[in-house]
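Q: Could you fold this chain for me?
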Amino acid sequence: MPTKIEKDVFSGRDTTGHEWDGLKELNTPLPKWWVYTFAATVVWGAAFCVLYPSVPSLRGHFDGVFGYSTRESVTADVKALEAQRAKVLERVNATPIEQVRKDPQLMAVATTAGRIAFANNCQPCHGASGEGRPGYPTLASDSWIWGGKLADIQQTITFGVRNAHPDARASVMPKFGADGILKPDEVGAVADYVMTLYGKAQPGPATAKGAAIFAENCVACHGEKGEGKREVGGPSLKSAVHLYGDTRDAVIAQVTNPRQGVMPNWNTRLDAGTIKSLALYVHALGGGE
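A: Sure. Below is the predicted structure, expressed as structure tokens.
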């Protein structure tokens, strides 16, 4: 049905011919100021895309006629911030780590720097609060393989664990099952005994065989009662914290073919002041000694 354009008797304007439930739409043009403003924004947008970096491409983006970029100014700001931060961290680095804790101002700086460094470097493996992940140690408990004092933590962060650095922490657990040192039934017996050390099983005649095998093969690194030996990097087996799980299958897997974690030495990436700040921060997560 063709539209019927007529003149509205009240406003004197033509209608568009559209009508809904007796309501007729007026053909009212947009205000000129609005039209001019809209046209100006279109011209401005087109000019901006030509003059400044804008359109993306497979090789990056269109640089614009002016070649404008804030990268240099941002780089300069970052360098200035690093220089300012370095002055404060120099004070932290020049102060013995135990003395930093006694200086509220230095401790506040070190805690802030340590928290930032932890988020940027350590959080992916150890969790946001140091809670750890499967295969990555928790830093918020008192279960430490090489010690949880400030100096211990600082050394571990500095040189890492089982990496190529000559001063890295190093400990190797034999492949008792994979290399045939123990038979499968002996591995199972040891697992049963180890589970008694952290309360997952009850000691008794059934675990006596595992206890004897443990005494012959494991006490050198883990201690007579599974308390661990930090001097050789032997973790405590009595702890409720378990790196790869506390089930029987998990214990058997670790005794059979142990997984050996690696931590990088951070002294090639972080300066000494940041490492000290990081040690102070980690120590304060809840597991420091």
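A (continued): Residues 71-94 form the longest helix (24 residues).
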